[in-house]
Amino acid sequence: MRINLLLVVLFLSACQSNNQADLKKQVEVFSWWTSGSEAAALESVLETYRALYPDVEVVNASIAGGGGSAARPVLQTRLIGGIPPDTWQTHHGAELMGQYVAPGFAASLKDLYAAEGWHELFSPSLIDMISNDGEPYLVVLNLHRSNTLWYNKPVLTEYGFSIGESLDIDELFEILEQLNTTDVSPMCMGDTGIWATGIMFENTLLGTIGPDRYLGLWNGTTSFMDTDVMEAIRIYDRLLDYLNSDHAALSWDQAADKMASGDCVFYSMGDWAYGEFIRDGLQENIDFGWVAHPGSDGIHLLVTDGFTMAKDAPNPQETLNMLRVMGDRVVQEDFNLLKGSICARNDCDRSRFGPYLQWAMDEYAKGVAVPTVIHGSAAPADFQQALNDALTDFVVRRNKEAFAKTLANEAKVSGFGS
Ligand code: GAL
């Protein structure tokens, strides 16, 4: 792995010096947006930039692997090696601050925010999430919701089920049990990237222990050994029994396609899945429906996507222009319609968005947003990695006590556990 990363760095550095000799202006945008909907959404931003700055070459440096599982290690190697991309994708909170701001890799965007008047156009709470010592370090393109339970509506109708505005965990298990006697897989999963099953765990945790105790996990007031956390682990363990048998061979977006085609029914996944359903030609409320993951009604498990500016960005002016484009209202609307998320800006045209995204806007507006641990916002990177490792072990061994103990220990090692 280390040698591979080193080769990547050497290769990129060679490309960079060649490119710089050949081309005067370029801007490199680093992300993990390579699924159908992710790539299309990113492309819509880059297209706008190209139209505005036709003499600049846009280098789309996307590395496949949902959740950034493959991109982030490459990025770290580049940052440590002193060859940063001009701008890279990251999430708010611990990931932005711990990985990029504290080590001095990201530049302050204070002047950009002031020049663009963004303090009026992004909510104070969002600006707070991306600021250190009062200075913003990220231009946020979108707000994803992670705790959504999607379902294939025609398949449920065929088996005589109709879902209302909410579903509790007992009702869900009742339906799963009955679907288990049919040819379809009751739950959908594609966890070639372990983070995807991590989403189902995180959603179950939030839905079982509630937002206050969930937040307590990250400040040491809730222990991973508590009985209600154990109950969440028990529920997650039960949910694993209903997955499609090929889950370990599928990516998160392949699992979304599987739900779209009716081979599996429920999918506990962030609303990047919505982007895939729409891309697959599905119609909301006809071909698919959604509720909050059981127990998490009225809570928004928030996943943000934003872009930094490298402290020593090779192309600073072009990068600032790219970030300006990303902060534009129409760019955010176009991007989010394809991506399956809502605008980070607070002045987007709501009427352009369909029923699901309007629902997500209303849910977010209720004001109970909690950070995701799976996507790096709630806890330091070391804990995020330890959680992924513990999940990898758990889905094979299914040892609930060992899982809880490992998380409790790792939280202490990371300095926030009780
Ligand atoms: C998240 C990212 C989302 C989505 C997902 C799957 O980390 O915030 O935008 O794309 O990964 O790749």
Could you describe the 3D structure shown?
With 418 residues, the protein is of the alpha/beta class. It has 2 domains: 27-145 and 302-365, 3-Layer(aba) Sandwich (D-Maltodextrin-Binding Protein, domain 2); 148-301 and 372-414, D-Maltodextrin-Binding Protein, domain 2 (3-Layer(aba) Sandwich). It is built from 18 helices and 13 strands. It has helices spanning 2-22, 36-52, 71-80, 94-101, 110-116, 118-121, 124-129, 153-158, 169-179, 195-219, 227-240, 252-260, 272-279, 316-326, 329-339, 355-365, 381-397, 400-413, and strands at 26-31, 57-62, 87-90, 131-132, 135-136, 139-145, 148-152, 185-187, 264-268, 288-292, 300-307, 342-343, 369-371. The strands form 3 sheets. Strands 1, 2, 3, 6, 11, 12 and 13 form a 7-stranded mixed sheet that branches. The chain has a 4-stranded mixed sheet with strand order 8-9-7-10, with helices on both faces. Strands 4-5 form a two-stranded antiparallel sheet. A hairpin with a 2-residue loop joins β4 (131-132) and β5. α2 (36-52) packs across α14 and α11 (227-240) packs across α18 (400-413). It starts with a helix and ends in a 5-residue tail after the last helix. Bound molecules: beta-D-galactopyranose (GAL). Beta-D-galactopyranose (GAL) binds at residues 32, 38, 66-68, 144, 252, 272, 303, 305, 375. Residues 32, 38, 66-68, 144, 252, 272, 303, 305, 375 line the site of beta-D-galactopyranose.
